[in-house]
Structure formats: C-alpha cells, structure tokens
Amino acid sequence: MVILRILLPLVIIALTGCASTSPYRNPKDPLEPLNRTIYKFNDTVDSVALKPMAKGYQAIVPPTGRTMVHNFFSNLDDVIVTLNDLLQFKLRQAFSDSGRLVINTSVGALGLVDAASAVGYPKHNEDFGQTLGYWGVENGPYLVLPILGPSTLRDSIGLYVDSRPSRVRRISHMRTRNQLYLLDAVNTRAELLDNEGMLTGAALDEYSFIRDAYLSRRRNLIYDGNPPRIKYDDYYEDDNGGADPGKSSANDVHASPPVAQTVAVPSPAAKTGAQPHHVVYRVWLARH
Question: Which long-range contacts (CB under 8 A, 24 or more apart) does 93-98 make?
Fold first, then answer.
C-alpha cells in the first residue's frame, strides 16, 4: 500500500528521534504523545466517516450478505496465512490452510461460502508480523498508524510485507481495487458495531485499553495461545527505571501481567476467525 511506503520512513525517523528521550514510564509506548494524537485523528475519521457508513451498510445488507463478504476477504487472506505458515515451518497447518483455500475458492464459490470449515479445515491467523515474532524479532515500540490503527514497529513492517502478494493490490483497475478496500473496511467496521458498548464500559482510558489489548493479543498469537509468563517488572517501573515495590515483588516474577487477564474482549471477528488485527476497535485494515 502506498500509505505504508510513506509511513514507515517517518516512523523510523520518529523512533530514532524520540524513543530515547520520552519521559513516559511505559517502555513499550515511548511515543505515547504522538500515538495519542494519531489515535484521536483516527477516532475522528471513524466517527465522521466510517461508522456512519457501517451503520448504513448494516441497515441495507442482510446478515447473510455480510457473512458472504467476510468469507470472501477471509478466503483472499488465506493466501497470506499459508505463506506465513511455510515461513514458520508449520507444515501441517500450511497443508490445512492451502486445502482450505482450494475448497473455498472452488466449492465455496470464490470464498463466498466457508465450506472448508464444515469439512474440518478451520481458519488460522498468521501474518508476517507473527512470523518475525516467531523467529525472535521483538515488537519494538507501540505505534498507532494513521488510518490503519494499532501496530508496533515489527507489525508495521509485517503489514507492508503481507501487502505485496495480495490479490486485491494487483488489480490494475484502480476504481475496482479501491472499492474492494472500502467494502472490506466497511464490512469489518459493521461487525464491530455491537461491541462498542463493551469497550466504552471496560476502560476509563480507551487508548491505554486498546494498546494493552493489542499487545496482549499479538503476544498470544505469536505463541499460539501459550505465551511464556513474564515479569511484572517489564510492565511497572519507577521513574529511575527500577521496579515499583508497590506493584511487584520477588514472588511476582513468574506471574502474568494483569493486562493479559483483563483485556481479552470478545468480538464478532474473533468468533468468525478474522485476522487478529480486527481485535478491539481496529476499524481499518491493512491485510492487502
């Protein structure tokens, strides 16, 4: 995507200029002032444009039609999933996901019907950001990308790489290509409409809640649902860089951070096997 070509150099410049001097205590979010500004911009775009479109779309298109649209884009996404299966040497899963792609493209009428799940080929979630994490690449700082939403430096690179083999990106007719991007975004946003109240009621600070939920979810996906336990010290530090004795102790060193226990918010996307980037108010996608 063109926007990613523009954003990545800017992100790298911002990181080298700001990350080392940020006064914020959360080491995973050194660019919090910038991120919050972009978050407010994205929220405004959503309130003014995307959310009204999603509501109108939901009112016009019946649930069956929305499910078929979801299945269509999910089927296209299985190409990316299979490639990342192979990069992680998950050969059995790669066989399953490639079989899923063949079944849904043929029997499922170009993916409009999820026939593969009915015959034992479940949807999996893999992307290049997860592949980098699988091979030991750290998250890097948390980032909120304009329009695209929550990410990290590693996942931003992953988004760009995953966009290269996209079938939609290779459509030469610009209007058709852009209409497909818009349809994907609006359909996904419509899936999240019923969950907004859960987000609003779950957190006093939506920005922090979404950030922690995103990072927790991504960690969980990289380790296939079984992440290693980490120290509280990684989350709570005093102003001098040491552990905060009021929030961690020697007995806590193998405990999971509380965020992992409190921010797992179910969504329609999670139930239907959508990509992890859809979790918790992620309204704009970069799957293609």
Answer: 93/124, 93/126, 96/121, 96/122, 96/124, 97/121, 97/124, 97/126
